[in-house]
Design a protein that fits this description.
This is RNA methyltransferase. By secondary structure, this protein is an alpha+beta fold. It is built from 3 helices and 6 strands. It has one domain (5-106): Aspartate Aminotransferase, domain 1. Strand 5 (66-71) and strand 6 (74-82) form a beta hairpin.
Amino acid sequence: MAYDEDLAERVREALAAERDRAEKAMFGGLAVLLGGRMAVAVSGSGGLMVRVDPDEALGLLERPDVGPVVMRDRPTRGWVLVAPAALTDDDELRGWVERGAREARRAAPPARGRRPRGGGQR
């Protein structure tokens, strides 16, 4: 399923002032990265994946339009999925996007390059 282009454009508008913003196709949707760290993603299955403080995630999951991000049959720590119904209001969307941006800025820098599999050099 393709992601919601209108939602993607609204996310772009909410992050227009960010200089280090990049977009990347991921998870059947569109991820938005700040400084190489994923902040939010417009989900291909609907809604918005948002990076959150892991200590706040349980409280956020009590909201009716917020659910866990599940990857490989397991909830992903520090991420929530906000349903499309909760994103119709621009101020509400902006609040979620700003939360994701704040957490992306606080996250550890992304790893540069990958280590070879199988124990490294021979």
